[in-house]
Amino acid sequence: MPSGNAKLIVLKPNTMVNLGKFGSFQSDFLIGKPYGLSYEIIGKQGEIRPVVHVSKNNSIGECGISPGFLIAKYLQLEETAANNQMIVDDASNQKLTHQQVLALKEKGLQGELATEEIIKMMVDSHSNFSKKTEYSKAKYIERKKKKFMKTFTPVRPTISTINDYFFSKNPDKIKNMRIDTLSQLLSMANVHANAKLLVVDDTQGLIVSSCLERMGGIGQLVAIHEGDHHNFDLLRYMNLSESATSILHPVPMTMIDQSIPDDFEILTDEQVSQLSKNETTSYGRRKAAWESRVRCRKALHDGNFDGLIVSSSFQPETVIKELMQYVNGSRPIVVYSFNKEVLLQTAYWMRRSRDFLNAELTESSMRQYQVLPGRMHPNMNMSCGGGYLLSALRVIDCPFDPSLVRRSADDGDDRRSKKKKASPAHNEDEEQGQAQEAN
Fold first, then answer.
1. With 60 as the cut, is the pLDDT of residue 21 above it?
2. How far apart are CA 72 and CA 204, in angstroms?
3. Between residues 49 and 414, the one the model is more confident about
4. Are 121 and 43 in contact (CB under 8 A)?
5. Where are stretches of biased composition, namely Basic and acidic residues (predicted)?
6. Cβ(75)–Cβ(186) under 8 Å?
7. Measuring CA to CA, how many Å separate 90 from each of 7, 95, 127, 146, 326?
8. Banded pLDDT at 188 (limits 50, 70, 90)
9. Helix (H) or strand (E) run with residue 292 in it
10. Tell me: the pLDDT tens digits for 370-403?
11. What is the residue extent of each domain of the chain?
12. Do 97 and 47 form a contact (C-beta atoms < 8 A)?
């Protein structure tokens, strides 16, 4: 949206989509259009029209004036003697009254007045605008654009956009996992198509969704979750196809143990025929759920996984002890936690164990920069951390068996040649020693 914020919307045919103070539009005008284009709301019926991307600041409106033209007209990025020392920023600088500004905004929402005209009127009515520095002029115009523009840009729901949205809006939902940490996790765990992965996810489905997106429906993903039913909420925002989610096999954490039975009374055809319509429907749902649990548990107990990813509220080493038996040798194990202290104990346990190799605790750093002409610098407000990752390799310790070592003929020739090359003095010492033993 013009304010820079994002909003999650499920488009349904023949509905009005409300963007708050930026107006409303008809969903039918957007369905079927490509992602990435910027649209402007025009008219009272919610019509929209495509415009040049808002980041370029050069969209030409019907009045022939654009925000880019305003910046080019009022802003020249060159050295100037102007400063903001004597400017008092208050409401008296604006000649337009509050009621007039609200009237202009209402006309803009109804499509009677273009956004470019409103911004131009606001600039022309500012008494101290000419006294501002060039950077202050640009910031003023940008603020008015965010307030009066009625443009928006549909963005494809990818794991990057979904992660950025929840990290800014509700970071606790995804356990404060930043996008750079998530990318490192996928790289360390070697997530790829045709892989067989074992995941313990308590990030509302962020890790599961990212693995499904990268695997593309090829492979197998067994997801361990707490409780009887999984809460992979982010899956419904990803807009993944049915083929991409078909490789997901959720298993409750209470059903990991193979000794725990999952009994279900299967009725015969005669018994089913005696049930009522509602009872038959209920029995069919329960039987389908039982068959799904059996199939998912079998996928887990078959083992031979290519990697293990853990993000759990339980102590990591307790989870790894239960699941590492299903992971193949020389396969990665990656653990995520927002608290470093939780992973320190697990790393110490891994380094003492003979089942793991190269246990490392890492933290990634990411800085966002403002990139503008003559004004490139880091943003003032940034996240201080995006979580920690503990990575290691699963090692299967095999005892050394000398009988498995095959000696070639070359090895025998080498030993015989070494005996022949022995010195005569050495041979005489051996003969004397044998004679003494005979006596």
1. yes
2. 46
3. 49
4. no
5. 407-416
6. no
7. 32, 11, 11, 19, 67
8. very high
9. helix 277-301
10. 887 777 888 888 788 889 999 999 998 777 777 7
11. 16-152, 159-394, 404-438
12. no
